[in-house]
Write a structure and sequence with these properties.
408 residues, mainly alpha, DNA polymerase, domain 1, hpI Integrase, Chain A, 3 domains
């Protein structure tokens, strides 16, 4: 039932608090669904105020009855805290497999901060303002404990997605009616131009890698450069993924590292569109076979210490190679040759930029990169698209001007 309580502040301001009860829990404690404080314009009459209070109380009570019905009589769920419900939700998605394991592991890293902020709060009492203040806190200097700066907007959004997913589960459980994460504002960050390898820089780097790098790193970076793969996709490649006759390779899995607890783990590609088959240069076949031969020698040398797998990139004993190893190797390699080190993802960006600039259409590039939508490719490579458009305009101008000169 709904109850209306009149309150008068020290300065004489009058407000009214409406509370709705869902009954009593197993300990005999009354369970309140929610409450709202209301102030009215002083120009309203007592009758008008009472009429509005009765209307709102009726709406509150109707919502509470609907929620109680959704909960199938399990009113004890009304007291569940965010932490309790989140752990229940984690168990559910892990058992059902509705989320990728890599996504689950990422969300688990958000628990300490989220639980500290709202973990002990009953889910039904969590407000929009609480969540908004938490997200804003992530955008302040010092939020990133590693750099001392704010967390990136992408990371802030990931925190919000985690909280929102748990709240959506709460709605399905009948604990709340609306998701307080709706319309939360994430602070924008100034976009900076990605520092990627120019064509000349990439050609020079590839030349040095081909001449000096060990076979596994040579193949690793050539695959990155020629196919525009993500780091995890390269690490997850197996010999069986290669069709040497047709010069194609299938992207079926990723190999990733989360933290010391999770370690290295295998997952599916980022999206369903990331499962793709790509053509590779014929001269990579010799390097692939060279690597296979070297791994066979390693297997013989290790004996029973060898961990059997079909992976291309492994440690001395056959275990999957840590995804950070190629990054560190390239950093050292670039430094020793006086070349700017621009990270691993720069290979992917350079691949896409050069493809677009030299005439490949967006749909094709999007497919090669494994993007779910062409809009993603457009958003990331706006500069390259603009450059390609300018190149096309210049081509049309030259064609038309030459045509005109022909008729003169």
């Amino acid at each position: 039932m709904a109850s209306i309580e009149k309150r008068t502040s020290k300065n004489g301001d009058v407000s009214y608090r409406i509370k709705v009860s869902l009954g009593y829990d197993e300990n005999g404690k009354q369970i309140f669904d929610r409450s709202e404080s209301i102030k009215f314009d002083k120009s309203l009459t007592k009758r008008q105020i009472q009429s509005e209070l009765n209307r709102r109380a009726a709406l509150f009570e109707a919502d509470a009855l609907q929620r109680k019905e959704n909960m199938d009589g399990c009113v004890a769920d009304a007291n569940v805290t965010f932490r309790q419900l989140a752990e229940e939700w984690f168990d559910l998605i892990e058992q059902t497999g509705v989320q990728k394991q890599s996504s689950i592991e990422l969300m688990k890293t958000f628990r300490p901060r989220v639980y500290e902020a709202i973990g002990g709060t009953e889910v039904r009492r969590i407000t929009y303002r609480q969540i908004q203040n938490f997200i804003l806190g992530l955008s302040r200097e010092g939020a990133n404990k590693r750099t001392g700066h704010a967390l990136a907007a992408k990371t802030q959004n990931n925190y919000l997605y985690f909280i929102s997913d748990v709240m959506t589960y709460a709605i399905k459980c009948g604990i709340i009616l609306n998701n307080p994460c709706r319309n939360i504002t994430v602070a924008k960050e100034e976009k900076t131009e990605k520092d990627i390898y120019s064509l000349d820089e990439l050609q020079e780097l590839i030349r040095l890698v081909e001449d000096e790098a060990p076979t596994k790193f040579k193949l690793y970076f050539l695959l990155m450069a020629y196919l525009g793969l993500r780091r995890g996709e390269v690490m997850g490649l197996e010999f069986g993924d290669f069709d040497l006759k047709n010069q194609t390779v299938s992207i079926n899995r990723t190999s990733n590292y989360r933290n010391k607890v999770t370690g290295i783990y295998t997952s599916t590609p980022k999206t369903k569109y990331s499962r793709r088959t790509l053509h590779f240069p014929a001269y990579l076949i010799d390097i692939l076979e060279e690597l296979r031969s070297e791994l066979n020698e390693q297997r013989e040398a290790c004996g029973d210490q060898w961990h059997e797998s079909d992976r291309l990139f492994v440690t001395w004993c056959g275990k999957p190679l840590h995804p950070n190893i190629p990054y560190k190797w390239l950093n050292t390699f670039c430094d020793s040759h006086g070349i700017a080190f621009k990270g691993l993802h720069s290979f992917r960006h350079a691949f896409a930029t050069q493809a677009i600039t030299n005439g490949a259409d967006i749909a094709t590039v999007s497919s090669l990169l494994g993007h779910s939508q062409t809009s993603t490719t457009l958003n990331i490579y706006t500069h390259a698209v603009q450059k390609a458009n300018a190149k096309a305009m210049d081509m049309m101008e030259n064609l038309l001007r030459n045509q005109n000169k022909t008729h003169e």
